[in-house]
User: Which sequence fits this backbone?
């Protein structure tokens, strides 16, 4: 099975790209969960989040910084936003390629579940 995020990074799958550089991309997901929902992910595939964090902690840091910059650019930094990484079946994760959710644009639940 082909990784959808790798296909987007390689240009073989279409996506609404918000930002891209040599290391990462930021896209609008097909099914946004909030008015402002962005997925940020590394271009290079990793099997899962723990292996990505082990092999590239600096890459994870760049994604976090890019998320903060994206929130500022989208204009919802002053009201707040949520950053979320998912890993494993209990999170209902569908894509194993590590990706960071940037959620905002409305008041979010006080529960993370």
Assistant:
């Amino acid at each position: 099975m082909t990784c959808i995020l790798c296909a987007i990074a390689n240009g073989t799958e279409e996506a609404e790209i918000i930002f891209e550089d040599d290391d990462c991309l930021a896209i609008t997901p097909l099914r946004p969960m909030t008015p402002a929902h962005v997925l940020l992910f590394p271009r290079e595939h990793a099997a899962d989040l723990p292996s990505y964090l082990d092999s590239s902690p600096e890459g994870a840091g760049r994604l976090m910084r890019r998320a903060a910059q994206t929130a500022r650019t989208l204009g919802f930094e002053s009201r707040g936003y949520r950053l979320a990484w998912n890993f494993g079946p209990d999170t209902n994760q569908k894509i194993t390629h590590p990706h960071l959710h940037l959620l905002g644009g409305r008041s979010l639940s006080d529960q993370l579940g």
The radius of gyration is 14 Å. The CA atoms of residues 28 and 38 lie 5 Å apart.
